[in-house]
Amino acid sequence: MAEYRFGDLDNITGGRVGGRASFSKVFKEALIAAYGTRCGLCDAPFEPRYLQIDHRVPYCVAGDGIAAALNVKDYMLVCGSCNRAKSWSCEHCPNGLVGKDPNVCLECYWASPLRYSHVATLDIRRLDLVWSGEEVADFDAAKARAGLEGQAVPTFVKAAVRQAVRESEARAVDRPRQRRER
Q1: Share of the chain residues as helix, strand and coil, in percent rounded to the nearest 5
Q2: Contact in structure between 139 and 131 (CB atoms under 8 Å)
Q3: Within 13 Å, how many C-alpha atoms sit on residue 107's CB side?
Q4: Cα–Cα distance measured from residue 22 to residue 67, given in angstroms and rounded to the nearest whole number
Q5: Most buried of 5, 15, 40, 118 (most Cβ within 10 A)?
Q6: Tens-binned pLDDT, residue by residue, of the chain (182 aa)
Q7: pTM to 2 decimals?
Q8: Which residues contact 35 (CB under 8 A, 6 or more apart)?
Q9: How far is CA 170 from the centre of its chain?
Q10: Architecture of the CATH domain 9-106
């Protein structure tokens, strides 16, 4: 797991702590106004204080180039858990280690979870789900059902999604046929 040491916060110079730019409360408020108070990756709701400002293109790739402008579109708010997962993935990504191409990062799940072509350069599709409030009962029921079928919850959920997509596609094919028969 990545460890960040920022040193003495009394030594902030030119908006920097330990070489990296610090973010103002005003900038975080601008991100909240643009994106709300949900994690940009898992979509779980959080109190603003628990959301972390994250570069869409990792600092190790973009450096200060993107950071200097503080453009809201270059950042997102993420929960601590997702930020750690992203950090680990980016620290082991071939582009983060060698290529350092910001455009590769912008096509990655970790930068653009709603429109991406890879996860850390691998042909992977990812979906982070969080159940909360009334949804917890649905998760518990799915977990129990998965256990009865001898499946891990992710395997069970993938099968349920696959089935729902097939059924939706079948209904879409049947609709025009039903209209023609009328």
Answers
A1: 50, 10, 35
A2: yes
A3: 10
A4: 10
A5: 40
A6: 455 454 555 554 444 445 566 789 999 999 999 999 999 999 999 999 999 999 999 888 887 665 567 899 999 999 999 999 999 999 999 999 998 999 999 999 999 999 999 999 999 999 999 999 999 999 999 999 999 999 999 999 999 999 999 999 999 887 776 666 66
A7: 0.76
A8: 76, 77
A9: 31
A10: 3-Layer(aba) Sandwich (3.40)
